[in-house]
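Thread: Newbie trying to understand structure tokens

Hi all, I'm a second-year student working on a class project, and my supervisor (Dr. K.) asked me to get a predicted structure for one chain before our next meeting. I've only ever worked with sequences, so writing a 3D structure as a token string is new to me. If someone could post the tokens and maybe explain what I'm looking at, I'd be very grateful. Here's the chain:
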Amino acid sequence: MRSIPTVTKNLLIINVLAFVAYFVLYLRGIDLNSIFGLHFFLASKFSFYQFITYMFMHGGWMHLFFNMFALWMFGCVMEQVWGPKKFLFYYIFCGVGAGLIQEISQYVSLYTMLSSSPEVGFTTLISAAWSDPSLAESLNGWTTVGASGAIYAILLAFGMTFPEERIFIFPLPIPIKAKWFVIGYVAIELFSALGSSGDDVAHFAHLGGMLFGYFLIRYWQRHPEVGNYGRAHGRQFFDRLRDSWENRKGKRFDGQSDVRNQTDWDYNADKKATEERIDKILDKIRKNGYASLTEEEKRFLFESSNKNK
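---
Reply by user tm_fold:
Sure, no problem. This is what the structure looks like when written as tokens:
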């Protein structure tokens, strides 16, 4: 556990504790999944806080195990690449997005069920459900639990960041590239969602998490100035102003000496050379995957990322 990054470790702990609490209280007649799970928005038990809490509830040990295994396997890597704040923002953002897509899919399902009634239209469905208390109460059974939406978004992030990285997936006897792994999962989920499998799995939530993750990653790629989990331009301006002041005076704002033996010219030249080398290493990762790096390049990238935290 000591080697697991902070956010990933805490997410693992919270999910396990939440499931233990659910199991203990369920034996006493209290169903935490009914309280904190995400209900359909027309159901009587729906609350907006459930868009957050449903990510920490699970339907069984196997559901919990596979989600936490994937979180440990891929979350550790992405948190080290992005840093804890950006990773946590991505996780919560995609989890909420998955819940929104699941709500939309349930609305479409309800419309399909009631479409035979001529007085119920797609836009009048809400008033029709609220006018029938028994229907609103019966919709409480449409409850979504689990971190799967956020987990699938992390799988997507890994595939987009390290597309050429080869990974072993049971029961396949040979490793496959991460990009094909992600594409395969998308195809399976899409086929399952559109099919009438009736397996009680929120396939649209899985796809929703990946969809929101894709758009967020693309946004970060096109707007690198807000890549640090969306810091405002003003905040970045004051950070640059502070760094410039510290570089010129050789002191930090905490009053401790931080004098360099370099001139500003030499310092800026070294900094530019470091940034150029980092860019080359990242290009190499995008083209050939993380495994193509030499040990010296991996060490240099790791040390550089620690200096910037």
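A couple of things are worth pointing out once you decode it. The chain has 13 helices and four strands. Residues 229-238, 251-260 have pLDDT under 50 and may be disordered. Feel free to ask follow-ups in this thread.
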